[in-house]
Each structure stands twice: as structure tokens, then as C-alpha cells.
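REVIEWER CHECKLIST
Item 1: Sequence provided? yes
Item 2: Single chain? yes
Item 3: Sequence as submitted:
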Amino acid sequence: MKDLLFIFLYPLSKIYWLIISIRNLLFEIGIFKITKVSVPVISVGNITLGGNGKTPTVESIISILLKKKIKVAVISRGYKRKTSGLKIVSDGNSILCSREEAGDEAIQVSNKFPSVIVIVDEKRVRAANYAINNFGVKVIILDDGFQHRWIYRDLNLVIFNESTLKEKRDLIPAGNYREPMKSLSRSDAAVIYSNQNNFLNLDQYWEDILPTKKIHCRLQIDKIENTADKHSLKINNLKRQNVLIFSGIAKPERFNSLLREEGILPNLHYFFPDHHWYTKKDNELIMSKIKNYNIKTVLTTEKDYSRMSTDFCNQLSESVTFGIVSVTTVFENELEWEKLILSTFDKY
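Item 4: Structure as written out by the authors:
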């Protein structure tokens, strides 16, 4: 069945390749203009569909810049939001948009970094200039910016994880690639996630394709926050409990694996589509499983939490221990990573 579907979709991928190739050519020869703004721009993006580690990478960059007391703006299109145009999600003091207005990723960044300016807009140049002129930001981070070529970037990062590097390189819709591999020539560095410490094999296999600069890292659980009191749950206390986890992310198996690495063995794991907005029917399903399987703890991701209704969050907190799992990126060479990010200011 998969082979038949691939045969049907492959011609569409060729049409998509033609469109992307023409678009990139128009940028290369200057018919499509690339605009440079007055502050450094760091772009974090993918060449494949989601689930590579883009959001943790963005959060790591924010942390480095805030540590240096640099005023930051994060700009994205606001994927899956129910609005359009320029929206100020956070002005550095308050969150000004709902989840539906901003999208889950913008809300997650706003909650995690209250002092950061967060703007969603399809037109990233407009959003960048707005952030510079109205908030005095000193650096722009483009979230999911690799394909958005209208704005010049001083550092162009492309994110991979081990599983995507092993996938076939067919373009969408037959495969998972947004662009041909030769588009990697636009990137300055590849940030490669692997929790198997398999970097040497990956680097050798992709030696002629990936950028010369490779940053090796892995994900690990930072904390699990109890929604009832905002305190961190002790992982050892979760190892012998009946645990249900649910997620609507691109690669839910990675969420499961991270928990298992810490010794947390979920009894049930419910998968929902990526960027899924939770409905009353979903809520009822989860509550019924809690009752039927004597579940004591429910865990989900930060992104999923941002797409849940307040009523459902409260219902879970009152029924079981409801924890939000935060992840962080651990770099093989933290100093090298920090130096790369701060090098964007050398020209300014």
C-alpha cells in the first residue's frame, strides 16, 4: 500500500521540486529581493518536516543571549494559528495573545522567557523592523526561517536529528524533505541531535552534504512541573507509578524515549496529530483511561500543554498528578556553541 501511495505522490514531488528550484533561482539571481535589517538575524530552521529539535535550539539561543543581557525578539509565522497578519504575542512584560491567535510555539516561548519580544507574522521583514523600531531589540531570532528567504540572516542554522538523517530524501508529498539537499549550501552550520552518541557515523555518512560546521547535541529532560503547585516532580517517584502520557508532536516516540531514559515507563501513550488542538472528545477519552487503568500520573509536553483548555488542565490537576515535561539541549561543546551564536555580533 505504501509503495502504491509513493508511486501516486512521486510526480507531485517532482512538480514541487520544480517550483522550489525556480523560487530559489529567483532569489539567487536577485529578482526576489532579500532585505537586510539593522540588527543581527539568527535563523533556525529545517530542511525536513518537523520534529528535529528546532524549538529547543531556539530556546538555547535565547538563553545565551539573555545571559549576555541582549534584548531579543523571536519572530515566526505562527504555525496553525487562527489569525493572520502581525500579532504581538509578548511585549516583554505580558502575553497579549491567546493560543489560538499566536500558535503553540509562540506561546511556549512567551511563557518560558517573559522578557523576550515574541511576534508572529507571515512577513518576517515587517515583523523584524517592527521589533527593532518599537522595542529596540538588538537581535532577531527567526523561528522556522530556513525557507523564508526574504530576510537576510547573519547565521543560518539547519536542524537535524538522527532519525531524519536516515530517511529517504524525497521531497514532499512523497517524502519529508521541504527542499533538495543542495539547499544546505545556504546554511552556516548543521545542529545535529542524537541521543545515541552516533555522531561519528552520521558525520561520515553525510560528509559531502552537510555544512562543514556541525554542532552535536542531545535532548534531555530538564524538569517535570506539577501543574497543581508549579513545583518540580521527583523523577524517582514516577518510576513505579501508573503513568499515562499523551502528545501531539511530530515525533512522539522521542517523548516516550526521553522518559524511558529516566526510568519512567508509561503504561499508556496516546498519539495525536502534530500541533493538535485538544477537543472535548479528547478530554473525555483521556479521563476515561485514567479511571479504567487506575492512572496516578499524566504527563505531556510543553507544546501540548499550550494547546489545552484551562478547564481540562484544571480537571486533570484535580484528578491526578499532572506534569508538564520540559526538555533542554545538551551540547557536546557548549563553549563552541555559545561562541558561534555570539559571533553574529562581530559585524555590528
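Item 5: Key structural point noted by reviewer: The chain has a mean pLDDT of 93.
Item 6: Recommendation: ____
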